[in-house]
Amino acid sequence: MAKILKFRSNNIEALIRWVKKNGAWNNSHTIFVCINCNKSFSGAPSAKAKFCSKICYYNNMKQRRGAITSHWKGGISEGNRCPDCHKSISYASKRCKPCAVKLMPHMHITDRPWLREPEAIRKALRRRPVSSLEAKFQEIINKNNLPYKYVGNGKFFIERKNPDFININGEKKAVEVYARKHKEKLRNLSIEEWKKERQVIFAKYGWEIIFFDEVQLTENNVLVTLKGGK
Questions:
Q1: Is the pLDDT of residue 216 over 80?
Q2: Which has the minimum average pLDDT: 58-62, 148-152, 175-179, 222-226?
Q3: Which comes out higher in pLDDT, residue 192 or 89?
Q4: What pLDDT is recorded for position 21?
Q5: CATH code for the structural domain at 128-226
Q6: Pairwise CA distance, residues 114 & 209, whole Å
Q7: What integer pLDDT is reported at residue 22 of this predicted model?
Q8: Domain span(s) for CATH 3.40.960.10 in the chain
């Protein structure tokens, strides 16, 4: 029957003597040697540990960069060139990006105009869950019986723009609810530029678009702005 080490000890020499005498069995300690500092340390046999501490682990990771690594090839490539335009490219690349776009346009989203068609956008929006701000605005609509309905799932477009809510009382009014941080993070335009762009497009078709951010989206402010309160 296999002998089990019944105690945990930080005494490495005692553990080495125990393992030499009894062997390293399941649930017992195995002696490892840290590949960074060559210090002996104990651990479970299944661990296959390489480092005695996180400090040694991070120090070893730092040594796996640049010219120290075994697969270092000299930094910036000099011999590897694009077969089409002969520009210098990285070791991993087969072509420079402009030539790759010309060769395989179907692999680059900027050259796939069909993805910008309303039907493609509509399919993508159907998969998008309702945001917390949209849900909050819907609650205000339901509570105060406002003449607006949710169309942010691709049910209504003006050109390629899909508002969150539209008026169902005959007025050409649309509503956008948004989080300022989200818009600033995902768009190259500022929030004011994004608003202006949408306002110009909606105005071409006689529509007014109203914006509410997370701070403005309160019941009182919505009722005053939309003039739909009781």
A1: yes
A2: 58-62
A3: 192
A4: 66
A5: 3.40.960.10
A6: 27
A7: 62
A8: 128-226
CA distances from 90 to 15, 79, 101, 127, 131 (A): 50, 9, 17, 38, 42
What are the Cα distances from residue 157, in Å, to 18, 33, 88, 153, 207?
76, 65, 45, 10, 12
Phi, psi of 97 (to 5 degrees): -65, -45
- 108, 96 Cβ separation under 8 angstroms: no
The owner of tokens 């000099």 is: 78
Q: What are 14's two structure tokens?
A: 């005692």
- pLDDT recorded at residue 164: 93
